[in-house]
Amino acid sequence: MDAATTPTAPTTTPRFNPLLPYFAVFRTDLRQTFHSWLFRLWVMVVIVAAVGYGLYKFGIHREVGLVQSASEQTGVLLGTVGVITLAFVSLVAVHAISGERGTVADSILSRGISRRQYFAAKWHARTGVLLATFAVLSAGVLTAYHYLLEPDLTFRGCAAGIAVAVAVLAAVVAWGVTVGAMSNGTVIGVTLFWLVLFGGLFLLSFLPSPFPSGAGLLAALRTTLRGHFDLVRISQVVGVFTLVAAVGGGVGLMGYSKKDV
Q1: pTM over 0.90
Q2: Residue 172's closest CA among 244, 254, 79, 81?
Q3: Considering only CA atoms, which of 259, 81, 242, 257 is closest in space to residue 173?
């Protein structure tokens, strides 16, 4: 057969998935977060505090005979550990991008990823790890307290309480990553975010009763854990904090896409 008439094999152009850089950064940040000493320290502090406090109240419940309800003691524990949890979670969130300030430009250039994809991957990875870990820790603590102390918890109430707490943390993580991305350093970002976060919680304590406050949320949480809550109200609270998290992520996406790295 003549060479001119020899059929040629069809050439196929490999398809490029535009989401591959996003998933690469997402998986890398998942591993970095799990291996971070800040993340591990936070988990250890929560576990030690929950186990120590639970065993102490269990001893009083058994030896003295004083009734120690699981919902009441869970509320007290959250009031003690809640501030520590907010501090650690916000620190891990702010450090997501600000901690890579020296290598972020090389990461974007070498992986062919846009600034928006880079920010979204960091935001989603930190949100997924922190919220999933908090939900697992909370479920474990509530289950243990239900069997160690006076059992007044309900599955429905625990699910609602965890949903509200996870929604609050989602907003904290989203705005933490945004502040860290827009700041020029981790120290500056953490300081600014803590001033806004804890300053806002302090100011909420002076507002009238219709407005939410730290003490009010804890009091409502104890009732919620017993199963006495309004599902519509819980849905509204979760929806509001979810919206706050989405707005925080949107601000970060728009701002970081225009920021010089």
Answers
A1: no
A2: 244
A3: 242
